[in-house]
Amino acid sequence: MKFWEYLLKIDRRVVFLVVGLSVLIPLIFPFYIKTNVMPTTQKLFDTIEEIDPGAQGILIAADYDPQTMPELQPMFIVLLRHSFARRIPVLVMSSYMQGIGLAKQGLDQVAEEFNSRAKTNADSIIYGRDYVFLGFPPLWLAAVLRMGSDISQAFPADYYKNRTASLEMMKRIKNYNDIGIVVSIAGSGIPQSWVTYANTRFGVKVGSGATAVMAPDFYPFLQTGQMSGMIAGLKGASEYEYLVNTKYNLPGPTPATKGMGSQSIAHLTILLLVVIGNIGYFASRRRR
Amino acid sequence: MSHDPWVWIGAFLTIGIFSFLYKENPFYRFCEHLFVGVANGYAIAVTWHLVLTPRLIMPLQGGNYLVLIPMIIGILYFFRFIPRLSWLVRIPIAVALGFSSGVSIPAIIQADVIKQMQGTVVYPHLFANWQQGFWAILIFIGVIATIFFFFFSKEHKGILKPVSYIGIIFIMVGFGASFGYTVMARLSLLIGRLQFLFGIWLGLIK
User: Fold this and answer.
1) Residue A12 — left, alpha, or beta (φ > 0 → left; ψ -120 to 50 → alpha)?
2) ipTM of this complex prediction, to 2 decimal places
């Protein structure tokens, strides 16, 4: 068998193994890669920086499930860390049933991280005062429209079955007028729906945290200004981690940044495999 | 190495799903069926605790009997199982369709058509910055050429031929960008699972 023919007949399991090793080895022996922040990530960061914590809050929609968790959970965590560091009131909801558990896990983790460093009650992150977990709306569209007039009516009870209107934070955050930005973290087209129903109708700013697969779909909305920034994929999450950690000097986990070495080496490996595969294909076709 | 039994269960289920990469096997099928069952059970629990309790039971206990109207409309869905009365299922479907269409059609025209068309128009003020002007013209050419490529009412001859060819180039660049992003996304998922297996489970990643 000629060399090029051999290349075209490599068992796919060998390719899986090579790609797997190219991801695993840089995780075990990590190396640092300089972070270049994309304009879309910077724009979302700047928009959240512009929020006045005394006047407005942020609504983070954890619109994802465990299938996209490795890519999106780091975005959720870093957005919470940014918001809590700025003392911006945080509202969290999820349009995916399976996203509720992930959102609660992230909220508990980041609240505990801040509270472990807090010295006074004012420094602490307290449920109901600094953040509220709204849970899951059964009819997403109806909830999004209702939140334009009254969030407490869209979510009569929070995740913990408290009356939403009775929570301290909700006395000043009534509707989209009191929300600086809605950030939808999703592996689907839901951020686009937030633009359609919340941004176009009520004028609230919308940003997105998107899986890399979905990111190209949202560029038209960034270009028109309908979206105020986007975190695209694990790379975007690492850029945001860099921005937050540089500005606020927060100790804590940076899962996206740790994955960047693997991402780079695996990309190079796949590029190499694509080039070799194409050379093999054209060389064998020429022989025929 | 982790001492948490849940981490061990997660690790074995992850390995079970990954075993499909070698070949189809009973361990993989067990994990797949377990996932489907757990996801359904979870959905039922969430529906009870986060939908029915706060939105139906709690309001009824508080004396708000208006919620009985949507409850009755919702119950009509179950009449599908009674052949003689199955026509009643059209009522909740009509309500859902009517609401969604009424809300969505104007919103989508405004957000996805009008705003996007405005984004394609080249305004003189865009040329205050040459880079911005260049990108605006490129987007304009790309949109027009791509639309021409999908214009099938006339054969692509004459002026239509080079324009639709430019459209193909823009479409191919779009596919390339999407493929690149897809590779990045799939690798990110693998990174997440390997971080779990070799970090949280085996403790090999610091």
Assistant:
1) alpha
2) 0.85
- Chain A residues close to B200, C-beta within 8 Å: none
DSSP helix/strand/coil, B197: helix
Q: Give the helix/strand (H/E) hosting B44.
A: helix B26-46
Beta bridge partners of A184: A61, A208
Q: Candidates 3.40.220, 1.10.510, 3.40.50, 3.90.550; correct CATH number of A37-253?
A: 3.40.50
What's the pTM? 0.90
Tokens of B186: 């799939």
Q: What is the pLDDT of residue B156?
A: 80
DSSP string, A168-192: GGGGT--SGGGEEEEEEEESSSHHH
Q: Which of residues 102-161 of B touch A (CB under 8 A)?
A: 103-104, 107-108, 110-112, 115-116, 118-119, 139
Domain edges within chain A? 1-30+255-288, 37-253
CA distance A12 to A15: 5
Task: Please report which confidence band the pLDDT of residue A288 belongs to, taking 50, 70 and 90 as the band edges.
Answer: low
Give the tens place of pLDDT for each residue, A197-247.
999 999 999 999 999 999 999 999 999 999 999 999 999 999 999 999 999
On average, the pLDDT of chain A sits at 92
Of the partner residues A142, A223, A259, the one whose CB lies closest to the CB of residue B119: A223
* Best of A195, A213, A217 to mutate (most B CBs within 10 Å, chain B): A213
